[in-house]
């Protein structure tokens, strides 16, 4: 009997987990029954359908949310269904499987794969993919250009092509210059407008035709102790002036290889020369500068006395208004043009005299596109390139090159400045003007570079050095497109001039 009593106690305890049939209705059951009753009463024939709910009842829908959020039409926004954990595991497996290489031999028919998936999993495995692309991707429209192509393609588009100028680090040609005198103060090198290079090798002058490569011995000094000190071509390139150590200035006709005259006026060697039309200016070791009118018998027409030591640099400006001179006394002087009919000796024609350099000034160059700009370079104790404004008399800029400066040349094709250096670099440097950004260094000479000269077409600079070589650097070749455009412009201008003459 005790056993039956224990079983009755167990059943009474279990009845506590069973629903209570005679208990009052739960709150959620009352809400559901009241909402159903109101909905039925609102739709009954005897009452209006516009009966509003009591304010105490919670509305079944949120106000303003009467529209369905999930589009019902196919082709609308992307629909992400609810998946169970098994489908999420399958989707994760499929994502990891896409990174594995595909086996081309084990190709499976999509229909049979779908049937296997339904029979094994109860659903199509393709439906388990989280990101599913429906349909094929559309091709780009005709004429469409991808602006991001440069990010992943090495094929350059026309907009990305940038032409860069190439400057060779090796000379275009090397010429021998045996017995070249290693003297910093001399000017033994010049290039004519007819493409002829003149170089002085000890007591002889040689000509090299850059077009054909022919070499000609022009002259040799009568006395072996004498030597050539300076050379300078006329503007048309037919005549060559030669300054010598016996205090003379000779004038030679190159075509006939004949000396036209020998002019004597200096008392020391003539180490610098410069032409201004029919006026030849010569600088001497005595510190004097002489003007010679080569048209008349009495050639010496003027003397400039401003330097106390050797005048090793001498250059007329492109417009012929000023003469610049540099000396071993570290001075840079600018002189005004000689007036016709004036004579004698005077130092009153000096316009400017600058003493900022701390070394001998041999390197002088006038800017072709700015006639009032003069560049000067100092020797070993100075090493500075200075830019002067002749109109204002001020120093515009100064740049330390860390090396002796023996020569300067402006390159108009790219508006650059070229400098020749001795100790300690022994090279040629191309500078962007006026920023003095270094464009290129031309190395190759084994000893100090003594002088520079520019070709008639301004595309090549020639350097002569104490290592007895002449090196031609083709560093300023003009852009062919710009060159043709300039030639067409010159032809059209000439055509207009000819028509106006007719």
Automatic annotation (TrEMBL):
SUPFAM superfamilies: Quinoprotein alcohol dehydrogenase-like. The keyword Membrane does not apply. InterPro entries: Cdc20/Fizzy, Quinoprotein_ADH-like_sf, WD40/YVTN_repeat-like_dom_sf, WD40_CDC20-Fz, WD40_rpt. GO terms for cellular component: anaphase-promoting complex. GO terms for biological process: anaphase-promoting complex-dependent catabolic process; positive regulation of anaphase-promoting complex-dependent catabolic process. WD repeats lie at residues 221-262, 304-336, 379-398, 442-474. One of its GO terms (molecular function) is anaphase-promoting complex binding. Transmembrane segments: none annotated. Residues 32-44, 52-63 have a biased composition (Low complexity). Gene3D superfamilies: YVTN repeat-like/Quinoprotein amine dehydrogenase. Residues 27-82 are annotated as: Disordered. It comes from the Eukaryota. The keyword Transmembrane helix does not apply. Residues 175-473 form the CDC20/Fizzy WD40 domain. Keywords: Repeat, WD repeat. Belongs to the WD repeat CDC20/Fizzy family. This is CDC20/Fizzy WD40 domain-containing protein. It comes from Monopterus albus (Swamp eel).
């Amino acid at each position: 009997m005790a056993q039956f009593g224990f079983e009755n106690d167990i059943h009474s305890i279990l009845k506590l987990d069973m629903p209570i049939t005679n208990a009052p209705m739960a709150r959620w059951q009352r809400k559901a029954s009241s909402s159903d009753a109101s909905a039925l009463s609102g739709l009954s024939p005897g009452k209006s359908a516009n009966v509003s709910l009591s304010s105490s009842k919670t509305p079944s829908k949120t106000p303003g949310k009467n529209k369905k959020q999930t589009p019902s039409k196919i082709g609308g926004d992307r629909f992400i269904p609810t998946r169970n954990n098994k489908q999420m595991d399958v989707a994760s497996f499929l994502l990891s499987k896409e990174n594995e290489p595909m086996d081309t031999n084990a190709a499976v028919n999509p229909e049979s794969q779908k049937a296997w998936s339904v029979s094994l999993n109860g659903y199509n495995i393709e439906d388990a993919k989280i990101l599913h692309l429906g349909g094929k991707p559309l091709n780009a429209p005709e004429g469409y250009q991808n602006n991001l192509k440069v990010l992943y393609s090495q094929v350059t588009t026309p907009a990305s092509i940038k032409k860069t100028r190439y400057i060779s680090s090796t000379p275009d040609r090397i010429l021998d210059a045996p017995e070249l005198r290693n003297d910093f103060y001399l000017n033994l090198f010049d290039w004519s407008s007819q493409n002829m290079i003149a170089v002085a090798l000890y007591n002889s002058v040689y000509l090299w035709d850059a077009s054909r490569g022919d070499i000609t011995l022009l002259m040799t000094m009568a006395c072996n102790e004498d030597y050539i000190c300076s050379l300078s071509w006329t503007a048309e390139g037919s005549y060559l002036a030669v300054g010598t150590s016996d205090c003379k200035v000779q004038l030679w006709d190159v075509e006939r290889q004949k000396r036209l005259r020998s002019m004597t006026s200096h008392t020391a060697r003539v180490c610098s020369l410069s032409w201004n039309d029919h006026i030849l200016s010569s600088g001497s070791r005595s510190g004097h500068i002489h003007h010679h009118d080569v048209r008349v018998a009495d050639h010496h027409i003027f003397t400039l006395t401003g330097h106390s030591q050797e005048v090793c640099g001498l250059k007329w400006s492109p417009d012929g208004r000023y003469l610049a001179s540099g000396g071993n006394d570290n001075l840079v002087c600018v002189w005004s043009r000689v007036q016709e009919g004036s004579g004698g000796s005077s130092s009153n024609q000096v316009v400017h005299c600058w003493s900022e350099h701390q070394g001998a000034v041999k390197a002088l160059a006038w800017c072709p596109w700015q006639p009032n700009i003069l560049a000067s370079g100092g020797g070993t104790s100075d090493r500075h390139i200075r830019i002067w404004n002749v109109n204002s008399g001020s120093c515009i800029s100064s740049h330390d090159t860390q090396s002796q400066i023996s020569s300067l040349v402006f390159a108009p094709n790219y508006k650059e400045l070229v400098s020749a250096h001795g100790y300690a670099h022994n090279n040629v440097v191309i500078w962007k003007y006026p920023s003095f950004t270094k464009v290129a260094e031309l190395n190759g000479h084994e000893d100090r570079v003594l002088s520079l000269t520019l070709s008639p077409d301004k595309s090549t600079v020639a350097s002569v050095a104490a290592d007895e070589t002449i090196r031609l650097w083709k560093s300023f070749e003009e852009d062919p497109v710009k060159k043709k455009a300039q030639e067409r412009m010159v032809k059209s201008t000439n055509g207009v001039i000819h028509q106006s003459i007719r």
